[in-house]
Design brief:
Helix 1 packs across helix 8 and helix 4 packs parallel to helix 5. The chain starts with a strand and ends with a strand. The protein is globular, with a radius of gyration of 20 Å. A hairpin with a 2-residue loop joins strand 13 and strand 14. The chain has two domains: 117 residues, 3-Layer(aba) Sandwich (Rossmann fold); 178 residues, 2-Layer Sandwich (Dihydrodipicolinate Reductase, domain 2). By secondary structure, the chain is an alpha/beta fold. Helix content is 32%, strand content 25%.
Length: 337
Amino acid sequence: MRVSVVGCGGVSKSHLTALSEMENVEISSVVDIKKDRADSAASRYNCKAYYDFDSMLEEDKPDCIHICTPHYLHADMAVKALNRGINVLCEKPCAITAEGLSRIRLARLMSEAQFGVCFQNRYNESVLLIKRLIEKEEYGSVISARAMVHWERNEDYYSDDWHGTLEKEGGGVVVNQAIHTHDLLRFLVGKNIKAVTAHVCNDHLKGVIEVEDTVNALFEFEDGVKAIYNATTAFSDNLPVLIDVICEKATLRIEGDNAYVITDGDIRQLHIADNTGFTGKNYWGKGHTSLISDFYDCLLSDRKFPIDAIEGGKAVEEFLAIYKSSETGEKVLLKKE
């Protein structure tokens, strides 16, 4: 299967590394408008460099593309590829507007190709372990949950032409850094979010960025489960993400890729993180390799990839609700499928 990786920035390394180690996969090309980045990646992976997305589609005709570009480009690129019958694996978020998400979903319905979104932390060993315990109701039903992301992003992070801009990034910590944790809350609770009440603000870089660096939100799930979600990039370090799922008989905790069960004040570790062998920043986790492997297994076996345009797009609908709630000061109800 011939594959093109579109966008040769930081996250592309995780994609290219995983692809280069897979059987039945050939990296046929890379694409980047910055010639030096495309050339460097092409040289390293012995493939053709393109500097224009449309030219690559026309000439290279890959079986699958990986979209690792700035957020505002995701929807247009995905739709163009799907319309040509090309499979797409897209970095989060798959879109930054409701219109962009709708176009992806429609293109997917009209195409024989598959579409997947990179919420790679779903594949972390700690997450899979806790998910199994919740599904089996090992500690009873889920009562509530909470999640915290406390990271650091200083002015130099926003020195390119798209981070920190509403038009190209689509938002700040909600859309970029903490979206994975927001997605994990829904994944672990196992129910859809039906309402959002949220507040976003810029506490850290006023006048430097157009987007928020801090969010506090209340998620109301189906069947009455509630979750509190707090994320910021105004901190002075990059701490491990913390998620607690409170069940009837215990609290199940994920901290980084460590997993714990807490009962009556007693903390027992269920999984110890392996903090070696990262292809990107260590707080990104290692899930890219497992997710990419699963995506290609789905393509080769004609199995449906679980984080598709519907499932992967829920985070878009929810972060748009977060922004609307913050703007209006009101609870926002999400439409039922």
